[in-house]
Amino acid sequence: MSNHVTSVTERLVQPILDEMNLELVDIEYKKEGQNWYLRVFIDKEGGVYIEECGQVSEQLSEKLDEEDPIEIPYFLEVASPGAERPLKTEADFHKYVGEHVYMKLYEPIDGEKEFEGTLKSFEDSTAVVEIRIKTRKKQLEVPYQKIAKANLAVTFN
């Protein structure tokens, strides 16, 4: 059910975003407590404004009402992905080379399954991430298919 809802939502929201020059970052459909939430995360260079989220929400809500892919009550939320934006696609990894990232892997590489570091490059579906182990730096080569979760990570210097 969740995959159906997210795929229908993507099909409905993409033309709205294209018209507004916005990027679809992610779609979540999940239950929290007693309530179901359909969350659509959008972005653009320099970030999105709350007014843009409101416009997308209104237009998407109309489309969802017309198509009615969700039979139970739910809350629709359209928002920015925030400072710790998820990296979902290979294009995201290319775009954020040089940024500080957090990654969780399906299986360990050099004994590491979870780490933070600087995304040094992304070539041939492989991310190179520089991590710090105490005072030394180490580069890990991480195949894209082994990445379970990745997002930008906020650092405080």
Distance between the termini: 43 Å
How many H/I helices?
3
Inertia-based shape? elongated
Strand/helix succession: HEEHEHEEEEE
Number of strands: 8
Radius of gyration: 18 Å
Short description:
The protein is an alpha+beta fold.
Word description of this protein:
Strand 2, helix 2 (50-67) and strand 3 form a beta-alpha-beta unit. The termini are far apart. With 157 residues, this protein is of the alpha+beta class. The model has no long low-confidence stretch (mean pLDDT 93). The chain has helices spanning 2-19, 50-67, 90-95; strands at 23-32, 35-43, 75-79, 100-109, 112-123, 126-133, 136-143, 147-152. The chain has a five-stranded antiparallel β-sheet with strand order 7-6-5-4-8. A three-stranded mixed β-sheet has the order 1-2-3.
What brief labels describe this structure?
157 residues; alpha+beta; five-stranded antiparallel β-sheet; three-stranded mixed β-sheet; 3 helices; elongated
